[in-house]
Design brief:
41% of the residues lie in helices and 25% in strands. With 258 residues, it is α/β, with parallel strands linked by helices. It has one domain: Rossmann fold. Strands 6-7-8-3-9-10 form a 6-stranded mixed β-sheet, sandwiched between helices. A 4-stranded antiparallel β-sheet has the order 2-1-4-5, with helices on one face. Helix 4 packs across helix 5, helix 4 runs parallel beside helix 6 and helix 9 crosses helix 10. Bound molecules: adenosine-5'-diphosphate and magnesium ion.
Length: 258
């Protein structure tokens, strides 16, 4: 279970960032009083355009950023006061994860398994399951540097799931992947959900949110403007697909800002 209670994150901007972001303010409220609950056995999708605050929110959940305000708990542990226990319960996946180019997927997997304190038998069983699903076996002994982007991504995902975490946090899971690999990844997320894991992802892809997520939280300018099941969101916005719903909320939110 992941619970966000009024999560707020404000970044202090450097002069350079102020110029880049074309603003005169030296603060950026990236996440603005967001509350949500992601439950076990569900995939929660944070849906929003670039810069909406999705990565920031996920990094707060993953203990990589400290909230400016509000509170986040993961499996009952506070991400600030109990970050150690949170980190043991989660896997945080981004496509920025880099495995050491000198080593093979199998070596990295075993290494991280040991780092998590798993015994050899458990590591072998986990590797068998994950490497089969992601078709890694054929290249498990090749050096990471010799692999294609898709292969590297699959290896990173497998390695980050070695400890069979209860909570999986995945920032833009299919970004940059070819359609076959992307499908491979979303299929695994469904499997995790069926195993009763709590899965939270971010995405800007409407069809991904529509097809994959049990609950969708729409986030615009750091504010969660609506959340619910797809059916609830369509009903509340009086629309018939998620893209229309999104633009209804987008127009409304922009008017309020103006
Ligand atoms: N380290 C940072 N310092 C300053 N501003 C940042 C930083 N990271 C993100 N931001 C700003 O915060 C906002 C939200 O960013 P982000 O969480 O990356 O959004 P998303 O993942 O939805 O694209 C953006 O305006 C972005 O420019
Ligand atoms: Mg992002």
């Amino acid at each position: 279970m992941i619970i966000l209670n009024d999560l707020t994150k404000v970044y202090k901007l450097s002069k350079k960032q102020m110029t880049e972001q074309k603003t005169k303010k030296n603060m950026k409220k990236a996440v603005d009083h967001v509350s949500l609950t992601a439950a076990p056995g569900q995939i929660y999708g944070l849906l929003g355009p670039n810069g909406a605050g999705k990565t920031t929110a996920l990094r707060c959940i993953a203990t990589l950023l400290k909230p400016t305000g509000g509170k986040v708990t993961v499996c009952g542990f506070d991400t600030v006061t109990d970050s150690e226990n949170v980190r043991k319960s989660i896997s945080f996946l981004t496509n920025e994860i880099k495995l050491d180019p000198q080593f093979s997927p199998k070596y990295m997997f075993n290494f991280f398994g040991k780092l998590h304190g798993l015994d050899e038998k458990t590591i072998d069983a986990r590797r068998e399951k994950l490497f089969s699903h992601f078709d890694i076996k054929a290249f498990e002994n090749k050096k990471i540097e010799e692999l294609s982007t898709g292969m590297k991504q699959k290896a990173s995902i497998a390695v980050s799931l070695v400890h069979d975490p209860d909570v999986v946090i995945f920032d833009e899971p299919t970004n940059g992947l070819d359609i076959v690999t992307a499908r491979n990844v979303t299929d695994y997320l469904k499997l995790l959900k069926e195993e009763g894991k709590t899965v939270i992802i971010s995405t800007h892809i409407m069809s991904e949110a529509e097809k994959l997520c049990d609950r969708i939280g729409i986030i615009i300018n750091g504010v969660k403007v609506m959340d619910g099941t797809l059916a609830e969101i369509l009903k509340n916005t009086n629309t018939s697909d998620l893209e229309d719903a999104f633009f209804e909320l987008y127009k409304l939110n922009m008017k309020e800002e103006a």
